[in-house]
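User: I've been trying to design a sequence by hand for this structure and keep getting stuck. Would you show me what you'd pick, starting by listing the structure so we're on the same page?

Assistant: Good idea, let's start from the same input. This is the structure you sent:
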C-alpha cells in the first residue's frame, strides 16, 4: 500500500484545479459525468454499480460504470468526471482500490472522489488520507445524489467532513447495466459435468438482521435489512435473462432474512423462466428453521446454497456469535443431501482461538462429511479479519490477541499466542496460492493442506482418496474469495 506525499500533493493540485475551473467555466454541460467504479466483486457483474447508475441517469447525469476486474482505467472516461464513486464491499476490493486511487485521481483531475459500500465507513480516516473526499454507507444512493448536486452548486454537504451512513429506505430502481461488460465476460456457473451456464447476479435484500461479530455488514447496518421490491428484482432478472443469463446468483447476505419475500420472488421467477437455475447464501440457523422451504427451493431451480459455517468448534462459534453449533452444521449437511441441493460451506479457519488440533479437526470433519469438493480451497487459508467497528472488538483484548489497527491490512492486527498457528496459516496460504496457480484440483490442494497441518502437529497419515472426498458440486468459475488478500495480478490489472 502506498500512502505518501504524492497522493496528498495530487489532491491539493486537484482542489486548486477544480476551484479554478468552477470559477471560470460558465458553460458546464447540462449532464455532468459521474463514474461508478467497482474494483472487484467476486467475478460478478456488479449490481452495486448498476443500481445507483440508474438513479443518477434518471436525475439527468451522464452515469458511467467501470468494473476494474474487466476494464481498464481510461482518460476518456475519467477526465470529464465531476464525481467518481468507488464501491468498497470487501477487503479484496478495498485493497485494489487503494492501489488504483493515485491513477484515478490523476486521470480525473476535476473530480471529487467518493467511496461507498461496507468497507467505506469503517475505513474513513485511512481513505481520506489517500485523497477520498466523501464517504457513504448503508442505503446511500439518495445521499450520493445530493452530494453530486452539491458539487455543482458548491453547497456544504455533510459527507465532505464526516461519513454519512443512512439506514432509511430508498426508492429502488431497476439496475442500469448498459455500460458494464456483457454477462458472458463474467464468472460462469460450472456444473459437475464441466458444462457452463452464463450467470447473472442480483440482490433481493440489503443489510442483515443478524449480528455475527466478524461480519463487515454489522458495523454499517447494525442488524437492519431492507427488502428490494419484488417487481424491481424480477425486472432485473428479466433483463439479465434477455442478455443471456441461464443462472441467477442471489447476493444477499442472507436470502432468508425475509423468507416470504424470497419465496414471492423465486415463485414468480420460476413461473416465467422454468429452466432458470439459481443459488443463494443462507445461514445455518435459517436452513434449520425454514427446512420446510428446502423442497420448494429445489423445485424452483435452486441447485446450490452457500452457508457461512466458519468453524466446527462450538467455542469458536460462540466467540463469533454465529447462532449455530457444529451439530447444527452436520444436520444441515444431511438436510441438503436429502433435498438434493448442493451445499457450499465457507470457513474462517484461523482465529485467535484456533489451535493446530482445531485446524486438523476441521479438515477431518470436511473429509468425514465428504465436503472436500464443496469447499473452495482458498477458504482453508483464511485468517479472521477485524475491521473498524467489528463486534470482535467488544471481546476482552486478552481473548482476541489484538495488537492494534494496521492501515496496511485495513483492520486490527492480531498475533496468536501460539506462534506455530500463525506459521501454519502462512504456510497454507502460500501453498494454496501456488496450487491454485498450477491448476491443481480441490482434492490435490486439500491433501497438500492436510499434509502441512499434520506435519505441524508432528503427525503423518495417508492422503484422502477420491472415494472419500464427495461429489463435485456446481461452482462459480471465479475461485477467489471476498476475505482473501488480492493477488499481485489483481493489484495491477487496472
Amino acid at each position: 500500500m502506498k500512502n505518501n506525499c504524492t497522493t496528498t500533493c495530487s489532491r491539493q493540485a486537484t482542489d486548486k484545479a477544480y476551484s479554478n475551473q468552477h470559477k471560470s467555466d460558465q458553460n458546464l454541460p447540462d449532464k455532468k459525468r459521474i463514474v461508478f467504479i467497482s474494483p472487484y466483486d467476486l467475478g460478478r457483474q456488479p449490481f452495486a454499480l448498476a443500481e445507483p447508475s440508474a438513479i443518477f441517469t434518471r436525475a439527468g447525469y451522464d452515469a458511467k460504470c467501470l468494473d476494474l476486474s474487466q476494464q481498464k482505467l481510461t482518460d476518456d472516461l475519467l477526465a470529464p468526471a465531476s464525481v467518481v464513486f468507488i464501491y468498497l464491499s470487501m477487503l479484496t476490493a478495498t485493497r485494489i482500490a487503494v492501489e488504483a486511487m493515485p491513477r484515478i485521481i490523476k486521470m480525473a483531475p476535476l473530480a471529487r472522489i467518493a467511496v461507498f459500500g461496507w468497507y467505506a465507513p469503517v475505513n474513513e480516516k485511512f481513505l481520506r488520507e489517500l485523497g477520498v473526499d466523501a464517504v457513504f454507507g448503508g442505503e446511500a444512493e439518495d445521499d450520493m445524489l445530493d452530494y453530486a448536486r452539491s458539487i455543482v452548486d458548491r453547497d456544504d454537504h455533510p459527507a465532505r467532513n464526516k461519513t454519512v451512513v443512512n439506514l432509511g429506505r430508498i426508492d429502488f430502481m431497476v439496475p442500469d447495466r448498459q455500460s458494464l461488460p456483457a454477462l458472458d465476460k463474467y464468472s460462469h456457473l460450472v456444473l459437475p459435468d464441466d458444462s457452463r451456464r452464463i450467470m447473472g447476479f442480483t440482490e433481493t435484500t440489503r443489510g442483515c438482521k443478524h449480528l455475527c461479530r466478524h461480519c463487515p455488514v454489522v458495523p454499517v447496518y447494525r442488524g437492519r435489512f431492507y427488502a428490494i421490491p419484488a417487481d424491481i428484482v424480477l425486472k432485473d432478472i428479466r433483463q439479465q435473462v434477455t442478455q443471456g443469463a441461464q443462472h441467477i446468483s442471489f447476493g444477499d447476505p442472507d436470502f432468508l432474512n425475509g423468507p416470504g419475500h424470497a419465496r414471492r420472488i423465486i415463485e414468480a421467477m420460476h413461473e416465467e423462466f422454468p429452466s432458470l437455475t439459481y443459488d443463494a447464501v443462507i445461514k445455518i440457523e435459517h436452513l434449520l428453521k425454514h427446512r420446510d422451504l428446502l423442497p420448494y427451493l429445489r423445485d424452483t431451480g435452486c441447485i446450490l446454497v452457500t452457508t457461512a459455517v466458519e468453524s466446527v468448534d462450538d467455542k469458536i462459534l460462540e466467540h463469533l456469535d454465529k447462532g449455530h453449533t457444529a451439530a447444527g452444521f452436520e444436520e444441515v449437511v444431511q438436510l441438503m443431501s436429502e433435498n438434493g441441493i448442493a451445499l457450499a460451506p465457507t470457513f474462517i479457519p484461523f482465529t485467535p482461538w484456533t489451535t493446530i488440533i482445531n485446524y486438523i479437526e476441521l479438515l477431518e470433519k470436511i473429509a468425514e462429511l465428504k465436503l472436500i469438493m464443496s469447499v473452495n480451497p482458498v477458504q482453508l487459508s483464511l485468517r479472521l479479519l477485524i475491521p473498524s467497528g467489528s463486534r470482535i472488538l467488544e471481546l476482552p483484548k486478552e481473548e482476541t490477541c489484538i495488537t492494534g489497527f494496521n492501515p496496511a491490512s485495513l483492520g486490527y492486527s492480531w498475533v496468536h499466542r501460539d506462534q506455530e498457528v500463525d506459521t501454519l496459516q502462512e504456510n497454507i496460504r502460500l501453498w494454496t496460492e501456488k496450487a491454485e496457480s498450477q491448476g491443481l484440483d480441490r482434492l490435490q490442494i486439500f491433501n497438500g493442506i492436510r499434509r502441512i497441518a499434520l506435519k505441524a502437529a508432528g503427525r503423518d497419515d495417508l492422503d484422502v482418496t477420491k472415494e472419500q472426498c464427495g461429489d463435485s458440486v456446481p461452482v462459480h468459475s471465479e475461485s477467489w474469495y471476498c476475505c482473501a488478500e488480492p493477488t499481485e495480478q489483481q493489484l495491477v490489472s487496472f
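That's my pick for every position. To get oriented when you compare it with your attempt: Residues 1-30 have pLDDT under 50 and may be disordered. The chain has two domains: 5-166, 188-477.
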